[in-house]
Amino acid sequence: MQLLLKDKPILDIQENGTCRILDFDRLPFALRKENITFIDFVEWASNRTLSIGRSYAKEILNSLRLSQTNRFAVCKACRGLSLEDAYWIRQEGDDKTWKEVNLFHNPFALFVTEISLSGTNIRYTARAEERANIHTPELTTMGVSAKGWIRQEGKLFLHKVGRYEIPADQILTALDIPHIHYRISTEEEISSYLSEERKEWIESVGEAVVNSELFTSEHISLVTFEEFRLFCSYYGMNPYSEAEKMDREFYLKMQIVDYILNNNDRHEQNWGFLMDNETGKLTGFCPLFDHDHAFVSYKDVMSQTAETQLTLRDAAVRAQKELRLNLDKLDVMERPQFLSAEQWDAVLGRSSISSICRYISERDAGSGQAQ
Hints:
Blueprint: E1 2-5, E2 8-13, E3 19-21, H1 38-46, H2 57-63, H3 71-77, E4 87-90, H4 98-101, H5 110-118, H6 128-132, E5 147-152, E6 155-161, H7 165-174, E7 183-184, H8 187-190, H9 196-204, E8 209-213, E9 220-224, H10 225-234, H11 239-246, H12 248-261, E10 272-276, E11 281-285, H13 312-323, H14 341-350, H15 353-370
Antiparallel strand pairs: 1-2, 1-4, 2-3, 5-6, 6-8, 7-8, 9-10, 10-11
Helix pairs in contact: 1-3, 11-12, 12-13, 13-15
């Protein structure tokens, strides 16, 4: 068995479990260490597959007759192919090439896309042999919301149930923060993949199907902070310090906007970096993405991007004291779609951290004079 980056073998995994590195500099960051064990490889491969907690995960796995508990077996069944990067697994006897198998250009199994969005397949069917030749990005797409990849005019779009992506997009655009853009999916785009029952449920709960264009490619991969943190642990480096060194301004902006959005979902797979597949080197932060769990109503949400235990507010105040990011544009914005008046007032209240910072600075200055 081999791990490849496009058509380039980078790791040999032999029958006795021995792993032989072929191209260290282009290994996945989670495996980029001197001695890779078979357990390391299995863990990396298993972490590529969808969580059983994802909406309709069981239905997807059942339709393909795949295990719900053995994620490594699932990964091997789909060759570990993902739209986040260009890595894949080739087992003994597999003579396929990257051109033949990659998800960026080859057709998907549309019945799996339908199951991913509706929980069942009604319009798209597949014969047994087609189901055995698994070709879908849904097995390696992370997150918990119902979602599915659809190819439109030669481009790939992730359609998902997540109305709050729209107001988050509008706010981040106003603040000029690099992020992935979302729009509401049209009836024409998704009607073939949504059952009538599913449509009625989405409407009844006030949700919406939204979509964003794929931001990775054959040439550019996503490296999550989770992977990067593992890499840093191998070499005694502080992953937060290293992230700051890469682009301190972006890192601090992320902490400010997470507080403004009251985003409780910036876990280690929801932020990270971009990697050049030719060199294996990181090129900078990935634009911010996945905000469908933002605008929570409770206070004192803990930051997941700060090194120490801080609330989103404390992390944002600390970052704003340094950046002095202009947040006035939010004051002249109309209330974004899908936000209630109460939610928008809360956003505007949180965006007043600039005045909080001024107060802290004045207080500190006064305290210094008193001494």
